[in-house]
Specification:
By secondary structure, this protein is of the alpha/beta class. Helix content is 38%, strand content 20%. Bound molecules: adenosine-5'-diphosphate (ADP) and alpha-D-glucopyranose.
Length: 477
């Protein structure tokens, strides 16, 4: 394959190095998906404490003094086929805890920590690394890298195009106006039509007004973002740039998420393995469930609508259903899930925590995955559900609306339904969807038809990678 161009991808997390959510999956998957299309991508991210040990024999490809109180070095290495550049700036990143927070909560200097990442990204975009690698396109993800297109634009872009992808607009990288100069932003750009954001600053807004292209991770979310219900204050900014906004659905790593590759394999043509996995899952959680076994694998947050589960579950359990939950997050929601597990022993299984291997067992054994999100830029678990014949029951928002075909009478008679969607995200609509799930499950022929449809869906990166490639190509011209 001839080389079409080089892309510098900048983010705060990336599988297999650090993950708190789907952002990391996407950042980790894009280089492999784009390589066959002729696009060479390197990922730049911070060298958090847990990552520093890996870099012992990595090559230094950038060094910069005066990076908000210390020196930064960019180290280049390969991790599971990925070309990764870690920004090693111990004064900013060598700390106990996660990427954004330590034992005492969010880091006080997050604005500076990610400004440093963005600053180095823009410099590398402009002049290339010391090993002679120079990108044609700068592709940044979420607020943590939002200042990179701004630094690139304000310092002279040297022909390098920039793309900003919004994975979650709930996080906007807010900083006080008094930090303008410390964040190395031009004072004459501090007005509402430019950097000012409700009297302060937002790294995300800075990126949105200065990048060449804005993408988000589904077509529906791209449209939703221009509306006050979903834009979270940035709807006007995004609407003014509508002509450069597009939605490109995330894909799924179909090598990792494949029922054929599970310890007890199955496929649309041979479903016996699924029954064995269901039995094993029930045994693991001590469950006996006559009806559909629903599952949730999720961050437990307000975004995900988890607070609605206790409201709708009693009727579902009474109808014969069961539930397995794997997740962690908001202590109130964790407590609510514990209450459910205590109230319905034998019907509700719970594991508070993060467990990749268990999540595979849960999708392999589950009948339906519940995703009652209030907003969902794309969502990955409904796509795992499709692959695993674990039918998605989802709120019809964002990427959930774009990936699941609701089993309404028309879709059922056309033979194209892949799951159940509901709207709006409230307990009434969610309860109706669960009633429909019980009814569908009670008709084995129809159920297995929908299940097979679901498993046939293409949720791979193939078509989305082609869309990113086309976007980059447009920036070369
Ligand atoms: P978000 O990024 O908003 O959390 P996504 O659906 O895009 O939502 O991605 C979530 C990713 O994190 C999926 O790969 C999902 O399987 C994984 N995940 C979430 N919670 C857990 C958990 N407790 N254990 C294992 N995997 C989890
Ligand atoms: C965000 C969104 C999720 C999306 C993921 C990857 O975390 O909440 O919907 O799938 O990013 O793009």
């Amino acid at each position: 394959m001839t080389l079409k161009g080089r892309v510098l991808s900048v983010a705060s997390e990336c599988v297999p190095l650090v993950k708190t959510g789907g952002l990391a999956d996407v950042v980790g998957a894009l280089p492999g998906a784009l390589a066959p299309l002729g696009w060479e991508m390197r990922v730049l991210m911070p060298a958090y404490r847990a990552l520093r040990a890996r870099t012992a024999d990595w090559a230094e490809v950038w060094r910069e003094e005066g990076l908000w109180g210390g020196e930064g070095r960019v180290l280049l290495g390969r991790v599971e086929g990925l070309e990764v550049m870690l920004l090693d700036a111990p004064h900013l990143y060598d700390r106990e805890g996660g990427p954004y927070a330590g034992p005492g909560g969010d880091w006080w200097d997050n604005a500076q920590r990610f400004a440093a990442l963005s600053w180095v990204a823009a410099k590398i975009a402009r002049v290339g690394t010391t090993d002679g690698w120079r990108p044609d396109v700068l592709h940044v993800h979420d607020w943590q890298a939002g200042l990179a297109p701004a630094y690139l634009a304000y310092g002279g872009s040297e022909g390098v195009g920039s793309v900003l992808t919004i994975h979650n607009i709930a996080f906007q990288g807010w900083a006080a106006a008094s930090q303008l100069l410390d964040l190395r932003l031009p004072a004459d750009q501090f007005y509402p039509g430019a950097l000012e954001y409700y009297g302060g600053l937002s790294s995300l807004k800075a990126g949105l007004i200065t990048c060449d292209r804005i993408t988000t991770v589904s077509p529906t979310y791209a449209a939703e973002l221009m509306r006050p219900e979903f834009g979270m204050g940035l709807q006007g900014v995004i609407a003014t740039r509508a002509s450069v906004v597009s939605g490109i659905l995330n894909g799924v790593d179909t090598g990792v998420w494949s029922p054929e590759a599970e310890p007890v394999p199955y496929s649309a043509a041979a479903m016996q393995g699924k029954a064995a996995n269901r039995a094993a899952l029930c045994a693991e959680f001590g469950l006996e469930v006559p009806g559909p076994l629903a599952i949730i694998v999720s961050r437990l947050t307000d975004q995900k609508g988890i607070d609605l589960v206790p409201e709708v579950l009693p009727e579902f359990i009474e109808g014969g259903g069961g539930l397995v939950v794997l997740g962690s997050g908001d202590p109130k929601l964790e407590a609510a899930m514990r209450d459910l597990a205590a109230r319905y022993p034998g019907r509700v299984g719970l594991r508070i925590g993060y467990d990749e291997a268990m999540s595979h067992r849960i999708f392999s054994g589950g009948d339906a995955v519940l995703v009652p999100s209030r907003f969902e830029p794309c969502g990955l678990t409904q796509m795992y559900g499709l692959r695993y014949g674990c039918l998605p029951v989802v709120a019809a928002v964002g990427g959930l609306a774009d990936t699941v075909i609701h089993a309404n009478p028309a879709a059922l008679s056309a033979g194209v339904a892949t799951g159940i969607t509901f709207h709006p995200t409230d307990a009434t609509a969610f309860a109706t969807a669960l009633r429909q799930l019980l009814a569908l499950h009670a008709e084995p022929k129809l159920w297995s038809h929908v299940q097979r449809n679901a498993m046939k869906q293409d949720v791979s990166w193939a078509s989305s990678a082609a869309e990113y490639a086309a976007l980059y190509e447009g920036l070369l011209a």
